Write a sequence for this structure.
């Protein structure tokens, strides 16, 4: 029931806005910054942030935000960031992560990765072809529609130096145990999305892992070195 209780915390609109803001920054966020960003009074924001931390949705740390040290430097600020623990709930209970792990192990043992990647690429292509089209029925030629689709799919995309990085891995629970299979599948899936959106001539998906983020990023071919 703990997952259900944690998810229920997000029913409050102010609390949900704070959570979404903290998660969207991809770094530690202080109370003042969060309060100002969502338009709440600091004391109320602190209350909601602490509730989110108590529910396991946020992690708490302490750090001085200025270079000053010693007497007069003040206490370290209380900072919040997204918790690494994944929260899910279904009624009746389902265990999709477990079965995904079984599939991943079977693919790894049988050497069927190539088939997996082909299926993932085809699925990505199909998904992208269903994105919003213009009045002429043409596929989107900008990256914006695809980024919106990735956001809705849980990737938490953000722009950085000519690339689209993905702050969250929707397949993290399986990737923790079967990284090679899962990351290869994810790469193929995103390659298919670029192809289906007619963006593969100008953008490419590539393996580009960072701690705590998705293993794949999307980069402009014109910015390659």
């Amino acid at each position: 029931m703990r997952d259900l209780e944690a998810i229920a915390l997000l029913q409050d609109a102010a609390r949900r806005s704070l959570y979404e803001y903290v998660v969207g920054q991809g770094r530690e966020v202080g109370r003042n910054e969060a309060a100002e960003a969502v338009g709440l009074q600091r004391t109320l924001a602190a209350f909601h942030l602490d509730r989110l931390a108590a529910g396991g949705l946020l992690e708490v740390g302490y750090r001085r935000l200025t270079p000053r040290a010693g007497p007069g430097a003040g206490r370290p600020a209380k900072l919040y960031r997204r918790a690494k623990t994944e929260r899910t709930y279904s009624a009746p209970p389902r265990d999709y992560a477990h079965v995904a792990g079984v599939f991943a192990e079977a693919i790894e043992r049988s050497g069927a990765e190539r088939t997996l990647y082909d299926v993932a690429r085809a699925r990505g292509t199909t998904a992208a072809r269903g994105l919003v089209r213009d009045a002429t029925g043409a596929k989107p030629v900008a990256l914006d529609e695809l980024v919106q689709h990735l956001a809705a799919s849980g990737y938490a995309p953000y722009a950085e130096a000519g690339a689209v990085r993905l702050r969250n891995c929707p397949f993290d629970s399986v990737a923790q145990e079967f990284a090679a299979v899962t990351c290869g599948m994810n790469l193929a899936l995103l390659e298919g999305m670029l192809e289906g959106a007619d963006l593969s001539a100008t953008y490419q998906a590539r393996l580009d892992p960072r701690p705590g983020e998705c293993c794949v990023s999307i980069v402009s071919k014109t910015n390659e070195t």
About this structure: The first strand starts at residue 29 and ends at 30.
